[in-house]
Structures are given as structure tokens and as C-alpha cells.
Design brief:
This is Arsenate reductase. By secondary structure, the protein is of the alpha/beta class. The chain contains five helices and four strands, in the order βαβαβαβαα. α3 links the parallel β3 and β4. The chain is globular, with a radius of gyration of 14 Å.
Length: 141
């Protein structure tokens, strides 16, 4: 079992989606965690679109790296530029990988309707699901 941390700025959306998909799709080979360099709380639209995809992340919580249990991570995956730039130091032989995804809240900010806003979340959700489905093999290339 490999330990993987998904790191984003606020740990409210993208990293939460990645953690949820990793547990649902790759829980046999990955122990998944998520955290942020800041704490923004859970994004309700992210929770809603993940539920549409059959993954319940409503029990997850927004947290800082310092709030995680003392885990030796095999992989740290940053999902946004800010988290990549501010990624804290992780001791040991951790493999750090940056895989950027667009920010659904920013994309949805100018949406004319709730359905249009959710469309942005769904598109990013589906891209994250595709990425997570290839883990951990895609990180070892």
C-alpha cells in the first residue's frame, strides 16, 4: 500500500475530489490523504458533483498539512500552481509530482446559472477521475 497526498491551496475542491476518487477507485493500492497550504472548508459544489459520480466526500474535511497524521508519504501530488510553489518540505524518499487542474470556483465565478457553474466542476472532476484511475503507475514513469 502506497501513501499519497493530494495538495492544493485551500483543500476545498480539487484535492478533496482526488482523495475521494483515490479511495473509491484505487483504495486497494493507495492510502489517500488531502490537505491544503490554507484551509478553506469543503466546497458544496464539489461535494455535489462527486455525489453525482457515486463518490461521497461529505465526510471529508478541509485541513492543513500540519493536521495530517504522521505518515511517510510515497507521493505528494500538487494539483494547483500555488500549492506547487508553496509545497512544504517532506522528509524521506517522497516523490513530488505536479499535475495542474483548473480551479472550478474560479471557472464558475462568471457562470450565468447554477447548472453552468456545475458544468465547470463536472469537467474538472472528470479530468481528476481520469488522472486518479491511472495511479500509482502513472507517477512511476
Amino acid at each position: 500500500m502506497k501513501n499519497i497526498l493530494f495538495l492544493c491551496t485551500g483543500n476545498s475542491c480539487r484535492s478533496q475530489m482526488a482523495e475521494g476518487f483515490a479511495r473509491a477507485l484505487r483504495g486497494d493500492v493507495l492510502a489517500a490523504y488531502s490537505a491544503g497550504v490554507e484551509k478553506h472548508g469543503m466546497n458544496p459544489r464539489a461535494v455535489a458533483v462527486m455525489a453525482e459520480a457515486g463518490v461521497d466526500i461529505s465526510g471529508q474535511s478541509s485541513k492543513l498539512v500540519s493536521e495530517l497524521p504522521d505518515v511517510a508519504f510515497d507521493y505528494v501530488v500538487t494539483l494547483c500552481g500555488s500549492a506547487h510553489d508553496l509545497c512544504p518540505f517532506f522528509p524521506g524518499p517522497v516523490k513530488k509530482v505536479h499535475v495542474g487542474f483548473e480551479d472550478p470556483p474560479a471557472l464558475a465565478a462568471g457562470a450565468a446559472s447554477e447548472e453552468e457553474a456545475l458544468g465547470h466542476y463536472r469537467r474538472v472532476r472528470d479530468a481528476i477521475r481520469e488522472f486518479v484511475a491511472g495511479l500509482p503507475e502513472s507517477l512511476d514513469k
